[in-house]
Specification:
Blueprint lengths: L2 E4 L8 H13 L13 H4 L3 H5 L14 H11 L1 E7 L4 H14 L8 E4 L9 E4 L2 H4 L5 E5 L13 E3 L2 H8 L1
Parallel strand pairs: 1-2, 1-4, 2-3, 4-5, 5-6
Family: Belongs to the 5'(3')-deoxyribonucleotidase family.
Protein name: 5'(3')-deoxyribonucleotidase
Pfam families: NT5C
Amino acid sequence: MEKIAVDMDGVLADVYHQFIQMHFEESGVLLQEKDLEGLTEYEAFPHILKHVHTPGFFRTAPLISDSQEILEKLNHKYEVFIVSAATEFPLSLAEKQAWLNEHFPFIDWKHMVFCGSKEIIKADIMIDDHFKNLDFFEGQTFLFTQPHNTHKVNGKHKRVHSWKDIEHFLI
């Protein structure tokens, strides 16, 4: 059975929604995703480090549309691993595991990989929103569109704009 490594933040969890909401609560300015296109997350959200260190940030992130249903379908066809860079933000470890347990109960703890660098990850397919995680990967890669990667191009990675796109290519 082929293995798929699926990123969490920006692919399953809508952390952009979290950042936008927290920015609004602090500044009163409601950012639009289209206005953030091409900006790194650090450029778009000046208080990003404060946000990711806020208790509950990762635990309360909303789901990206269609991710539950389609990931469950993938889980019947592939061996699915959730691979998340979590060790940089220690609070995120328990919060991410609790979030996954709540929203993706069909993914067992043995298929949750919390790491720093994803360079060690070996699978057949990787779905991620960051080039830094996809560029070194030796298997098939899917770049999940987020504002920070909208204007970047790399012919090696197939761009997907939604979970429906992933379903089209992989199921």
